[in-house]
Amino acid sequence: CLPTHLHAPAAIAAMKRGVGVICEKPFASSVEDAQAMLEASRNAGVPLMIAHCLRFTKNYAYLKRCIKDGRFGKLLTYNSYRETPKPDWSVGNWLANTKLSGGAVRDLHVHDTDMIIGLLGEPEAVYTVGSDTYCRTVYRYAGKAVSASASWRDIKGVPFDDGIDVAFEHAWFKSRDGIVRVYTDGENFDPFEKEDFSDFSEEMVKCELDYFARVMSGAKNEICPPEESYISIKVSFAESDSLSFGKEIPISSK
Question: Which of 222, 251, 226 is nearest to 236 (CA)?
């Protein structure tokens, strides 16, 4: 839980000493640092997991199942948003320093970028508009319309808010303010009442830490492997480049 620019040196030092690491998102303050962390994990033979907490929510688990088994046909559109008060609590206000934090693109928007990658894989390209405090990205996937937005709201008292809308060929998934519904063929229902989500508590951070404890005990990391987190940070930097240069940025295969 260190500031982002300190993730790599601290994590690498721990792994060189044989200590497994769970590291807060975003992965690191550069793609090169993320690569060095992955290499340190492999060389030491100890687990590394980036704490992308949205992967430990029922929303993510349910959508992953729907895509995998094709129960509602193909995914056609995906749109999400995330809004929080502007963070003013960091030591030395480092979060407000875009060179250190990456701004809202890296520190907030990466949540939804990672969720999209976990569900749909690596995009072909990204196009991002906005500023250091708010942004929207369109992710290029063949045959799908995928976008996400994020905002740090500089207004006192503004609440946290997020939402997801996903259209499948034969259903619509809608999540707002903790209320989740699926609409299909004239029916609408709470998807979490229909199947077992006992491994996913309402406290996603607790669920995440319990899962990492199992990984430390030898379980395979299937929910949040660091190789996918590496793709997410790579895409996040492409989003920053798109914002800076005002154009679509292809995602490198490296």
Answer: 251
- Could you give the CA distance from residue 239 to residue 131 in angstroms, rounded to a whole number? 11
Rg of the chain in Å (alpha carbons): 18
The one-letter amino acid code at 65 reads: R
Per-residue tokens: 118 = 């976990």
Which residue, 133, 126, 144, is CA-closest to 109?
A: 133
> Is this prediction's pTM over 0.70?
yes
Q: What DSSP designation does 122 have?
A: -
Collect all residues with Cβ–Cβ distance below 8 Å to 134 and sequence separation of at least 6.
104, 149, 150, 151, 152
N residues, the chain = 254
Q: Give pLDDT tens digits for 115-155.
A: 999 999 999 999 999 999 999 999 999 999 999 999 999 88
CA dist., res. 82 & res. 10, Å (int)? 29
Residue 40 tokens read as 């340190």
Measured CA to CA, the distance from residue 208 to residue 90 in angstroms comes to 23
Q: Measuring CA to CA, which residue among 221, 186, 204 is closest to residue 59?
A: 204
* Ordered DSSP codes for 138-177: EEEETTEEEEEEEEEE-STTPPPEEEEEEEESS-EEEEET
Q: Which amino acid is at 42?
A: R
CB atoms closer than 10 angstroms to residue 196: 7
Report CA 195 to chain centroid distance, whole Å.
24
Strand partners, 183: 172, 188
